[in-house]
Specification:
With about 450 residues, this protein is an all-beta fold. The protein has no helices and 34 strands. Strands 1-27-26-25 form a four-stranded antiparallel beta sheet, with no helix packed on it. A four-stranded antiparallel beta sheet has the order 2-3-4-5, with no helix packed on it. Strands 6-7-8-9 form a four-stranded antiparallel beta sheet, with no helix packed on it.
């Protein structure tokens, strides 16, 4: 199989802190979809599949496919339908399971065993959307339907309703434990705006739930190396984390509006999160290797966001199943890819060289920027902003920091932060006897 590769270009921020400001890679647009919104997204060994809808979220466009061997898009199937769920597996993508919604309000789950040449209806509903399909990584026969909440143990040929009391409301995302197909999670919000995270230990046959204070929006993922660690994205600058397989939850800060996390098969600990900047002006991908204790920005080049994103299905991030490549499907911006093969993305700790490191993002910056800091040993730290003549403008951080990775955000016009004139500035990091300096361009 041949997979598209990014042409590495000029200086940008690599996802792993390396101390070198040269680019390891940038996001690259694959199209199609400018002016449209994704409603389902799947990446196989052979292709990218995306269900697109008009940006007004009413007119379905069908299932589109980007083949890696031809590097071309085609309208793969069901033009004119809204495609709300996709699962693809097997040699040459012969097995395909989708959920679709037509203009007459009829919804179906369809199964193909010959790569999409022929389809069989395995589930049908009148005047009811069938939203979302999630397949277990370790057992292709185990599939969950997001809404209505159903489960299949035979690859989508038959469907069963879970027993017991299942929370009623909009399911935002579902995920399986990557090493145990019996353990699954979903996030949900009821009609009375009660947010919850639900867990099953029998493959979706029965669910139990816990109410969550704060925002629960979409995107829940289990870490592959330590499956007791779970991360859930929110609509605010917070994330929910669990270190005991979903029994208890706590909130941690995020430097952006976190939407959809992903833990790639080729990654050991890294969780990637797609969202928007705090002012919702652009899309962002960040990475955490320590369950949201620290964050690292991933690459540059994603487009501006089209305004407030209040529908959970407008953003998706998925990874290639074997190669270190991320794919993002964005409302109003199409499908994007980032090839990470030239970086040390497989190692959350990055370089083994014990040195302090500092990266700035975005650069050039307009109304704010972030400082990603790595220190190999706990030390007293000063992080300061200086003008082009070396005069102190503001101390961004001063105090003792433990060893590891840290991210600090500077926003113009908030607190003591003042707006900066256009020009070149310098950010200096002092950690014990070590020092690192990076230039920053302010350009509005």
């Amino acid at each position: 199989m041949r997979c598209p590769r990014i042409v590495f270009q000029m200086a940008c921020l690599a996802c792993v802190l390396s101390g070198d400001t040269r680019a390891e890679g940038d996001w690259r647009s694959l199209g199609p979809g400018v002016g449209y919104a994704p409603e389902a997204f799947f990446v196989s060994e052979n292709a990218v599949y995306v269900g697109l809808v008009e940006e007004d979220l009413t007119t379905g466009l069908g299932l589109f496919r980007y083949r890696f061997d031809t590097e071309q898009w085609d309208l793969f199937a069901w033009g004119g339908f809204r495609i709300l769920g996709i699962a693809v597996w097997g040699e040459a993508d012969r097995n395909i399971l989708i959920s679709r919604y037509g203009d007459r309000g009829n919804a179906d789950v369809l199964r193909s065993t010959d790569g999409g040449s022929n389809w069989v209806t395995t589930y049908h509903r009148d005047y009811w959307e069938i939203v979302g399909l999630t397949q277990a990584p370790t057992d292709t026969a185990r599939v969950l339907m997001h809404h209505p909440k159903m489960y299949s143990s035979d690859g989508g040929w038959s469907w069963n309703a879970p027993g017991g009391s299942v929370p009623w409301g909009e399911t935002r995302d579902m995920t399986f434990n990557p090493s145990d197909a019996q353990v699954a999670y979903f996030t949900s919000a009821s009609e009375i705006e009660v947010d919850m995270i639900c867990k099953s230990t029998d493959g979706g046959a029965y669910w139990r739930y816990s109410l969550i204070d704060g925002w629960v929006h979409s995107g829940i993922e289990v870490e592959r190396q330590q499956t007791n660690r779970v991360l859930c994205g929110t609509t605010g600058d917070l994330v929910h984390v669990s270190t005991d397989a979903g029994e208890t939850w706590s909130m941690r800060d995020a430097p952006f509006r976190a939407w959809v996390p992903d833990c790639p098969p080729w990654s050991t600990r890294s969780l990637f999160v797609l969202g928007t900047t705090l002012d919702e002006s652009s899309y962002d991908v960040w990475r955490t290797g320590d369950l949201a204790e620290s964050w690292q920005p991933c690459g540059e080049g994603l487009p501006a966001a089209p305004g407030e994103l209040w529908i959970w299905s407008q953003l998706f991030i998925e990874s290639h199943p074997t190669q270190p490549i991320l794919y993002a499907a964005l409302k109003g911006a199409g499908v994007w890819m980032w090839d990470l093969s030239a970086s040390a993305i497989l190692s959350p700790e990055g370089s083994t060289t014990p040195r302090i490191e500092l990266l700035l993002y975005p650069n050039p910056a307009a109304e704010g920027f972030r400082c990603a800091v790595r220190i190999p040993e706990s030390a007293p730290v000063t992080l300061a902003l200086h003008d082009a003549r070396g005069r102190l403008v503001q101390k961004l951080r001063e105090g003792f920091l433990v060893a590891g990775d840290h991210v600090f955000t500077w926003r113009a016009g908030q607190g003591t932060e003042r707006r900066l004139a256009n020009g070149t500035y310098y950010v200096r990091l002092d950690a014990g006897p070590a020092r690192e300096t990076r230039s920053l361009v302010i350009l509005r």
